Amino acid sequence: MNRAGILIIDDEAQIRKLLEITLQSNDYIAMQAATAKEGMIMAANHPPDMIILDLGLPDLDGHEVLKQLREWYTNPIIILSVQSDEADIIKALDNGANDYLVKPFRTGELLARIRSALRSTLQGDITPAIVIGNLEIDLALRTVKKNGESIKLTSTEYTLLSLFAKNEGKVLTHHYLLREVWGPGFINQSQYLRVFIAQLRKKIEDDPNRPEYLVTESGVGYRLVGTE
After folding, report:
1. Which of 5, 38, 68, 157 fits a 20 to 30 Å CA distance from 182?
2. Can you give the pLDDT at residue 126?
3. Residue 195 and residue 89: Cα distance in Å, rounded?
4. How confident is the model at residue 60 (pLDDT cuts 50, 70, 90)?
5. pTM tops 0.90
6. Given this model, what pLDDT does residue 227 score?
């Protein structure tokens, strides 16, 4: 049984009810808050395993809520918003959101994102070997295998792949990846990222032109997708 507790912070009663029914029918514990203030109090008093946060709240901008939560809350936060502008998505992800879904959304996709985010949290740093589909990334030995066969990666390729593996299912923005792998001075050097993503796909994908693992989130970044 899942029994993970998920706090919904959304001012639309209809959305909250839909999410509550969806979550409870999949064995999650659902809690609701209609305002930012109410949600942050609930999160502080009884920290949930995950928060689903709307950006369009009546009493405080959702981006500000996200920043305040990330001052202390370390569990996954998924943004669920009508705002589909790339700048809003990038801002939310850079401010610490684990994922971003635009309303209207498919409940199946939301549940898949929830499972992925919770799985990454449970993995934490306990297991140095991360298995994603037919890939095995051993963070302790710094080795990568596909179908049991070792894959030779450069130091930069490995650093990039391990970053994705530690954040399986989470969208990593272009700026975040460039900053983490190459440093703050390279956040505008998107060609570095394109080259190394292409190289990684040639090594880990069956068909690099139709990637199944390292997928593009158009205009935002990339995501390493596991198999259910």
Report:
1. 68
2. 47
3. 24
4. very high
5. no
6. 56
Positions of CATH 3.40.50.2300 in the chain: 5-123
Query: If DSSP codes are grouped into helix, strand and coil, which group holds residue 141?
Result: coil
Q: Is the pLDDT of residue 122 over 70?
A: no
Rounded-to-integer distance, Cα 46 and Cα 223, Å: 30
Q: What is the C-alpha to C-alpha distance for residues 219 and 86, in angstroms, rounded to an integer?
A: 7
Q: What are phi and psi of 46, to 5 degrees?
A: -140, 80
Residue 78: which region, alpha, beta or left (left: phi > 0; alpha: psi -120 to 50)?
beta
Q: Residue 67 is encoded by which pair of tokens?
A: 């920043």
CATH topology of domain 132-224: Arc Repressor Mutant, subunit A (1.10.10)
Average pLDDT over residues 29-55: 95
Strand partners, 138: 129, 143
Q: Coil, strand or helix: which one is 32?
A: strand
- Which CATH number does 5-123 carry? 3.40.50.2300
